[in-house]
Design a protein that fits this description.
- The chain has one domain: HIT family, subunit A, CATH 3.30.428.
- 24% of the residues lie in helices and 21% in strands.
- It has two helices and five strands; from the N terminus they run αβββαββ.
- It has a five-stranded antiparallel sheet, with helices on one face.
- Strand 1 and strand 2 form a beta hairpin.
- The model has no long low-confidence stretch (mean pLDDT 96).
- Bound molecules: guanosine-5'-monophosphate (5GP).
- Keywords: Hydrolase.
- GO terms for molecular function: hydrolase activity.
Length: 117
């Protein structure tokens, strides 16, 4: 598989080279709003460890970030009053990955407003 590319857009956001709408940050992860939201409140969780995606990540990265993924899902649901929350995560281009730094999508779903992918 292709190696981690340190100049991907999320790595640049993590280094502060590109602005983002940050929701939360700690030593292990950044939470920000998606620049092209699939629905109101679409949020991204980006672990800081340099992993290309789930196939490339260290188990420790995953075990430290999953509680945050749950916290963000609950907070976004509460803030948006969404009827459901989709957790999405894509690995490699054929699967729909476009930014090659591990991240998790929290996508609020509203009844009567179907989502795409
Ligand atoms: P994926 O790689 O899982 O397909 O999705 C990448 C996501 O990153 C997309 O939902 C896209 O809208 C979002 N995205 C791409 N570039 C930027 C950016 O510069 N800032 C932010 N906040 N999101 C971005």
């Amino acid at each position: 598989m292709t190696a981690y590319e340190p100049d991907n857009i999320f790595a640049r956001i993590l280094r502060g080279e590109i602005p983002s709408v940050k929701v939360y940050e700690d030593e292990a992860a950044l939470v920000m709003m998606d620049i092209f939201p699939q629905s109101r409140g679409h949020t991204l969780i980006v672990p800081k460890a340099p992993s290309r995606n789930l196939l490339d990540a260290e188990p420790e990265t995953l075990s430290s970030v999953m509680p945050l993924v749950q916290r963000v899902a609950k907070a976004v649901q509460k803030a948006t009053n969404a009827d459901g929350i989709r957790l999405a995560q894509f690995n490699e281009e054929p699967a729909g990955q476009t930014v090659f730094h591990l991240h998790f999508h929290i996508i609020p779903v509203y009844e009567g407003t179907p989502l795409g992918r």
